[in-house]
Design brief:
Elements lengths: L2 E5 L3 E8 L11 E9 L1 H11 L4 E8 L4 H9 L3 E8 L6 E6 L5 E6 L19 E6 L4 H13 L3 E4 L11 H8 L4 E5 H10 L5 E5 L2 E5 L9 E5 L5 E5 L3 E4 L13 H13 L5 H15 L12 H8 L2
Parallel strand pairs: 1-4, 1-8, 2-6, 4-5, 8-9, 9-10, 10-13
Antiparallel strand pairs: 2-3, 6-7, 11-12, 13-14, 14-15
Helix pairs in contact: 1-6, 3-4, 6-7, 7-8
């Protein structure tokens, strides 16, 4: 099996369990506080590694990086050759407000990841990579890395997460996407992507799910993977749209990192030779497993469990 190269942050998440997300000027009671290993780079890497995917991680941390987190990455046999440490900035951290209905809000301290652009693309690789997944990362790093991956024939996906709302501008996004095959995001991020690319979109519907559409974006990418929470996920292409429904979770605990778990399941299926539209099912299954435990990495999963859950 080829490797998955993941570019993204490693955080310590402070998760505040609240009754509801407050509006501006409001407060909300905090029912519990937990600290968990997190960050998109770490979450996706751990999820894929649980499913026996060889993972290479590219990230930047401070000299204060949690030793137990480092130990967990090593225990999952994640290649850390491209994990860099800087001495003058702290490791990234995130505060998460998590409500019982699965809704969340975030506050993120970038810290050492601001130095990511100084590191250059994570090449060369000791083992061949089938896919590169660029998650929350410095825009210049994303542009340079996507170009380098394209030049090396590595299929690349762009997944800016919530940073698309405040960190990215249209020309920068276009520079990344022109070297990518795939975009990842939730429905709001997909809509915002079209907005900052100045693409006027129309509403379309599949199985009662309304989504924005403009076929010009597919001059840049082949497909978009859009997560829909409890409604599952969808694959949007120029000539087809595929929806895979979500899975019932009776023992819901915490939604933190469910989208990252989805990505790990999706890539584990792709690297086993499954088609992307089929990989959505395994992504949904991995996301469902992650909901049954506190924190983004605290759940148990393996490929056999995922096959049983998805009945594949």
């Amino acid at each position: 099996m080829e490797s998955l190269l993941v570019c993204g942050n490693l955080n310590i998440d402070t998760i505040l369990s609240v009754d509801y997300l407050p509006e501006e000027g409001q407060s909300t009671p905090v029912r519990s506080v937990k600290k968990e290993f997190g960050g998109c780079g770490g979450n996706i890497s751990i999820a894929a590694a649980m499913l026996d995917v060889p993972v290479i991680l590219s990230s930047v941390v401070g000299s204060d990086f949690n030793s137990d987190y480092l130990g967990s990455l090593k225990e999952h046999n994640i290649d850390l050759e491209h994990l860099k440490t800087v001495d003058d900035l702290p490791s990234p951290f995130c505060t998460v407000l998590s409500a019982p209905d699965g809704k969340q809000a975030y506050a993120f301290m970038e810290g050492a990841m601001s130095k990511q652009v100084d590191q250059g693309p994570p090449l060369p690789l000791k083992d061949p990579a089938g896919f590169c997944h660029i998650a929350t990362s410095h825009p210049d790093f994303c542009i340079n890395t996507s170009r380098a991956m394209s030049e090396n024939g590595i299929s690349t996906a762009f997944d800016p997460g919530q940073e698309i709302y405040f960190r990215w501008k249209g020309p920068e996004v276009r520079s990344v996407l022109q070297n990518c095959e795939r975009f990842f995001g939730n429905l709001g991020e997909w809509e915002y992507l079209l907005d900052i690319l100045d693409l006027e979109w129309e509403d379309r519907m599949i199985e009662k799910i309304v989504y924005p559409w403009n076929d010009k974006v597919f001059d840049l990418i082949d497909e978009a993977v859009v997560t829909l929470g409890h409604r599952g996920s969808m694959m949007i292409r120029r000539n087809e749209v595929i929806h895979q429904p979500g899975m019932d979770v009776s023992d819901f605990v915490d939604a933190t990192g469910a989208g990252d778990a989805f990505r790990g399941g999706f890539y584990a299926a792709l690297l086993r030779g499954l088609r992307p539209e089929h990989a959505l099912v395994f992504g949904n299954g991995m996301g469902a497993l992650s909901l049954t435990s506190s924190g983004p990495q605290g759940y148990e999963a393996n490929w056999e469990m995922l096959e049983d859950l998805t009945d594949q």
